[in-house]
UniProtKB/TrEMBL annotation:
InterPro entries per UniProt: Flavodoxin_fold (IPR003680), Flavoprotein-like_sf (IPR029039), FMN-dep_NADH:Q_OxRdtase_AzoR1 (IPR050104), NADH:quinone_OxRdtase_FMN_depd (IPR023048)
Role this protein plays: Quinone reductase that provides resistance to thiol-specific stress caused by electrophilic quinones.
Protein name: FMN dependent NADH:quinone oxidoreductase
Protein family (similarity comment): Belongs to the azoreductase type 1 family.
Gene that this polypeptide is encoded by: azoR
Enzyme nomenclature, EC number: 1.6.5.-, 1.7.1.17
Keyword Repeat: no
Cofactor binding note from Swiss-Prot or TrEMBL: Binds 1 FMN per subunit.
Keyword Oxidoreductase: yes
Stretches assigned to the Flavodoxin-like fold domain: 19-213
Highest taxon of the lineage: Bacteria
Source organism of the structure: Stenotrophomonas bentonitica
Matches recorded under PANTHER family: FMN-DEPENDENT NADH-AZOREDUCTASE 1, FMN-DEPENDENT NADH:QUINONE OXIDOREDUCTASE
Pfam family, one: Flavodoxin_2
């Protein structure tokens, strides 16, 4: 059984195509997760919405609590870390992360950044071992194969690798850097572009992204679970 963690980060509550002013990243994550679930209805799914219910930002009390050895934490420090612990537990259970993250001002929305800050936890998702002089940081999520898909949307054009706006894309590198630091190095990115231009440009990009999502789901299902291939062929 695969454990999926489906996370949405758009401030817009509805899905594009179903709601006026709906979110394209919510539409992409929905497409991914529903196609996966049709092929493998027995897989487990956890849903987290950091767009509508953002985690708390890291605070002055959070920092010493997170870096205190667990046995020495006060009850108040345990309480300060409760949300972080719940988010970390959810992450540790996951084999596959389906992340819907729009570009806001060249980076991730603040709710998603708050989520990243809450899941990077010494002793839980990474460790620091100074005796390992060459690589003191130990990624604790490298304990088993895990992968992520970053489903994004941007108002402008050209933020893809090699594109004329690529140097201003601080979203994809931030997500890959943090997940890689924790041990999730297989991160596949698919993005819609031209949301602010609309019309044909946007329609073409949406169609391409939806097709890319379908192909990625089928590829990962086939790679992980050879029998899922047969199910998908039957449905076609
Ligand atoms: C606060 C805010 C900041 C944005 N900043 C950018 C940006 O820096 N670059 C860009 O191309 N589009 C930007 N956009 C456009 C969004 O990336 C685009 O609307 C995207 O589709 C939002 O994702 P969603 O459809 O899932 O809500 C911004 C939108 C908002 C609301």
């Amino acid at each position: 059984m695969t454990q999926l963690l489906h996370l949405d980060a758009s401030a817009r509550p509805g899905r594009a195509g179903e709601h006026p002013h709906g979110s394209h990243t919510r539409a992409l994550t929905h497409r991914f997760v529903s196609r996966w679930a049709r092929a493998r209805p027995g897989d487990a799914l956890t849903y987290r919405d950091v767009g509508l219910r953002p985690p708390a930002p890291v605070s002055g009390d959070w920092v010493p609590a997170a870096f205190a050895p667990p046995a020495q934490r006060t009850p108040a420090q345990h309480a300060v870390l409760a949300e972080s612990d719940a988010l970390v537990d959810e992450l540790l259970r996951a084999d596959l992360l389906v992340l819907g993250v729009p570009m806001y001002n060249f980076g991730p929305p603040s709710g998603f950044k708050a989520w990243l800050d809450q899941i990077v936890r010494i002793g839980r998702t990474f460790d620091y071992q100074p005796e390992r002089a060459d690589s003191p940081y130990v990624p604790l999520l490298a304990d088993r194969p895990r992968r992520a898909v970053l489903l994004s949307s941007r108002g402008g054009l050209g933020y893809e690798d090699g594109g004329e706006m690529a140097a201003m894309n601080h979203l994809d590198p931030a997500v890959r850097t943090v997940l890689g630091f924790l041990g999730i190095t297989e991160v596949h990115g698919i993005a819609i572009e031209g949301e602010e231009l609309g019309g044909e440009v946007l329609a073409r990009s949406v169609a391409q992204a939806m097709g890319a999502v379908d192909r990625l789901v089928d590829r990962w299902l086939a790679a992980n679970h050879p029998r899922a291939d047969a199910v998908l062929c039957e449905a076609a």
